[in-house]
Design brief:
Strand order of the largest sheet: 3-4-6-5
Shape: globular
Radius of gyration: 16 Å
Largest sheet: 4 strands, mixed
CATH superfamily of one domain: Vaccinia Virus protein VP39
CATH topology of one domain: Rossmann fold
Distance between the termini: 23 Å
Structural class: alpha/beta
Order of helices and strands: EHEHEHEHHEEH
Strand content: 25-35%
Length: 147
C-alpha cells in the first residue's frame, strides 16, 4: 500500500531537520494544534492520524478544540492514535505540560462522534520511573459498534 504522509510541525528548526533526515516523500507543514488552520484549508481526509507526545502540551480547552478539528480531518473509516504522557505534578509544572487522562479523552471523543477502540499502557522507553505512557486508539463511533 502506498501512503501519502503529511507531517505537521510548528517549529521551523524541527521541520528543517526532519525534512533532511526523514523519508523524502513526507510533506512537512508549518501548522499547530489546536486549530490546524493551514491543514484544514487543504480539506484533507486522513486514514490515520498520529499524535505522539503532543496531547499533554495542550490545555484542557485546547484539547476539546483540537479533537473537534482532528475528527473533521479523519476519514469516515479512519483511525486516530494519541499517546498520553503521565508524570508527577512537579515534573509537569517544570515542563509546562498538562495532566491528561483516558477518561477525559473518552468524554471529549464521545461528543465528537469518536469512540475508544483500545488503550495500551507502557513504561517510559527512556527508563524514567516517574513517567508512563498510554496509547489510545480512537475510531468513528459507528465503526466500533459495527465490529
Amino acid at each position: 500500500m502506498d501512503w501519502h504522509v503529511t507531517a505537521v510541525e510548528p517549529e521551523a528548526a524541527f521541520r528543517r531537520r526532519a525534512s533532511l533526515e526523514c523519508h523524502k516523500q513526507i510533506d512537512w507543514l508549518d501548522d499547530c494544534l489546536p486549530a490546524l488552520t493551514t491543514l484544514q484549508a487543504l480539506k484533507p481526509q486522513f486514514n490515520l492520524i498520529l499524535l505522539s507526545a503532543v496531547w499533554m502540551h495542550l490545555s484542557e480547552s485546547q484539547r476539546g478544540q483540537a479533537l473537534s478539528v482532528l475528527s473533521e480531518l479523519l476519514a469516515s473509516d479512519g483511525v486516530l492514535v494519541i499517546s498520553l504522557r503521565h508524570s508527577h505534578a512537579e515534573e509537569r509544572h517544570a515542563r509546562g505540560i498538562f495532566p491528561v487522562s483516558t477518561a477525559e479523552l473518552e468524554q471529549l471523543a464521545s461528543t465528537r462522534g469518536l469512540a475508544i477502540k483500545s488503550v495500551t499502557q507502557r513504561e517510559d522507553q527512556y527508563g524514567r520511573n516517574h513517567v508512563s505512557w498510554e496509547t489510545v486508539v480512537l475510531v468513528p463511533a459507528r465503526d466500533l459498534h459495527a465490529v
